[in-house]
Write a structure and sequence with these properties.
CATH class of the largest domain in chain A: Alpha Beta
Radius of gyration of chain A: 24 Å
Largest interface: A-B, 64 and 65 residues
Strand content of chain A: 15-25%
CATH topology of the largest domain in chain A: Dihydrodipicolinate Reductase, domain 2
Structural class of chain A: alpha/beta
Number of domains of chain A: 3
Oligomer: homodimer
CATH architecture of the largest domain in chain A: 2-Layer Sandwich
Chain lengths: ~425, ~425
């Protein structure tokens, strides 16, 4: 099996290194020697994390996808323009493709998967979600007996690192972001990570494989972590929760909801204890119940582990040609955002006049929202009360209407903060 | 595809129920209608958890494994005598077999897998380990790029329930066992669960799939939880650990160690937070790092989820015919028990005479064992000191020699308790 690799950076270099160090083990598993014969790089004079002996380098990636001797192309370059053209060409030329590119799959996966099927070749992308954690294979194979009701994942390591540091050190978002950038965990432009776009790409893939429907990135409601304050993390801890940036997809009686946002999770849940740069995905099936998959979501060798697992599946003939692992995709309408039911956390800053809490709870009660927990912190120098409330299970439209009413009260000193609470039950 | 089922109890009934309720979903995934046509039961007049319409019942299981119309046999009856004969016959007759029977696979798997291969049929057993958690498929497929260095699992729900209750309620082993029996979590004869035999069956399977070697149940060193006292659980909590009953297999430079025993795990590790009847397996690969798989280890529908997943893999043709997922099995000698390196917890009851701690630490120091943490509880009515010690990383032979020396001291009032500590790093 001849393999061409597009991109020899962190992931590509990791693939070369892991194939070298585990050659004997992989051959013992598969009976096959898997070797990289060609690689496309941007700059052939650049220094790399892997040796390139025996690999023919080129700066023209088109040469590889058009090379009649190449059987499998590994797309590990990122981006969605050139990479799309290259993957299309490879598939049209009858080559299997393994990609680690979540942006490409989330935004162009439907057409690329159809193209792969039409050409009788595989397009696999285990590495695109949660790095080395075999979550896509688990959804496709291990959980194939289930109707999947929910996936909920910590699928962006940078965001999880920042939230963990904010909680454990009581620091503000901006200070921790700077620290993450200094450590190399966050990019100079952190938008993709902290505003949830990267997590939304991964959620689009998870939801489609879980429910068996087309990829629908555009329908994901996405909110980042940049508006989480250290007051929120402190209140969450006090109330018995941890704030995590979750990608959540649910199939509620045939209606799908997909959302990426900060979420309070009860500290008793395993997912609330997934800290630092680690990733984890909880999957709830209607037979198996709740299962969880945890591991490194990034890094050269962890990501390479997933890329090579796809390669081995192709080599052994154990990969499925079905699109997203489904013989027939279903069509599920998106649930309107106002209809999404959840528990909510509200944080309010109110002038400490008599009857403030009574006024707030009266507004909530008028919408049939009950209060499960409330914490009021001591009055600050401006004579304001800091209040956090956990509600019962209500519709997003209902909580938003209540917030609008509360916001109109004279005693409210700043915009009411609302965060989803996921009990994961 | 015609399926015959052996045993229509909890698991068998669960399979029938899950196939019925998820029929549309499974057909959408596979393009196939999977149906049970025959079932062998001990007593056809018994009441069941599933409907039996359309299933031809028999009390003679041999009829099913010899039925030319049956393509796949589900062995869900348990035991190792009759079930072995039935599985052998089914395989010789060219039928695929899916089994949930860990005892059968752990003790007769080598010959049965060879028989399956010789007959060109599958013998799959995802449900035999950790119920619905797709841990075997993850080892075989998702982690195929890795040299697996360690598996460490909470793989017996009954034991984990008992240890969790002991910790959270400060109760003694026997009280909690009684409670577990009353709740139906533990059998009337709880030996298999609390003495670690069930966990050892599962560990044998995990180790063989992880390392790619023959099943070797006889070589597992097994210790149950019946000797854990509530003093141990309290000390563990005070020292920042949780006591879990783990199955641990490591491949240390080509030498394998397999052991089932109570283990102190740092509370900061996800595995230490897996409570109640839940199961979880941590797998450390040399590319992916540490990954963890969590879910229900028992129950009708959770176990059925794994059985049907195997069935779907056979139906779709995505299962591998290789034994244990390996083209070539390796041969790894077992590491001698004395050579196993670990951190240790020691608990001592000593007469509160001057210099007791100095004497104990002098013995440890004489064997190059250093003390990482020590807690001494207040003197009891008998004027005895209760002492717990966490050591550094040393060989089991070394700690045992030190314990023998300590035990010889006049001030020691009862046998020194030793428990392995796994940092999971």
């Amino acid at each position: 099996m001849n393999i061409g690799i597009l991109g020899l950076g962190t992931v590509g270099g990791g693939v070369v290194n892991v194939l070298a160090k585990n050659q004997a083990e992989i051959e013992r598993r598969t009976g096959l020697q898997i070797q990289i014969t060609r690689a496309a790089v941007r700059d052939s004079s650049q220094s790399r994390i892997c040796p390139t002996d025996g690999i023919l380098l080129t700066q023209d990636a088109m040469q590889i996808v058009n090379d009649a001797n190449i059987d499998v192309v590994l797309e590990l370059m990122g981006g969605t323009d050139l990479s799309k053209k290259l993957v299309e060409t490879a598939l049209k030329n009858g080559k299997h493709v393994v990609s680690a590119n979540k942006a490409l799959i989330a935004t162009h996966g439907n057409e690329l998967l159809a193209l792969a099927k039409a050409n009788g070749v595989h397009l696999l992308f285990e590495a695109a979600v949660a790095g080395g954690v075999p979550i896509l294979k688990s959804l496709e194979q291990g959980l194939s007996a289930n109707k999947i009701e929910m996936v909920a994942g910590i699928i962006n390591g940078t965001g999880n690192f920042i939230l963990t540091q904010m909680r454990d050190k009581g620091k503000d978002f901006n200070d921790v972001l700077q620290e993450a950038q200094d450590l190399g965990y966050a990019e100079a432009d952190p938008t993709f990570d902290v505003e949830g776009i990267d997590a939304a790409h991964k959620l689009a893939i998870l939801a489609s494989m879980a429910f068996g429907c087309q990829l629908n990135f555009a329908k994901i409601s996405t909110e980042g972590i940049s508006k989480i304050s250290n007051e929120d993390t402190a209140f969450a801890t006090e109330l018995g929760y941890s704030i995590k940036h979750l990608g959540i997809a649910k199939n509620i009686d045939g209606q799908v909801q997909m959302r990426v946002h900060p979420t309070l999770i009860p500290k008793s849940q395993l997912l609330a204890n997934v800290d630092g740069v680690m990733n984890a995905v909880l999957v709830k099936g209607n037979a198996v119940g709740s299962t969880l998959y945890y591991g490194a979501g990034a890094g050269a060798e962890a990501t390479a582990s997933a890329v090579i697992a796809d390669l081995v599946d192709i080599a052994k003939g154990t990969a499925s040609l079905d699109i997203l692992g489904w013989k027939t995709l279903g069509v599920f309408p998106n649930q309107h955002k106002d209809e999404i039911e959840s528990v909510f956390y509200l944080r309010l800053l109110a002038a400490d006049t008599a009857g403030v809490l009574a006024d707030i709870t009266a507004i909530l009660a008028s919408k049939n929202i009950s209060v499960e927990a409330v914490v009021q912190k001591q009055i600050d120098a401006q004579n304001n009360a800091h209040i956090a409330i956990i509600t019962n299970f209500v519709k997003t439209g209902t909580i938003n209407a209540a917030i609008a009413d509360i916001q109109n009260k004279d005693f409210i000193q700043e915009p009411v903060k609302m965060i989803y609470v996921e009990t994961l039950d």
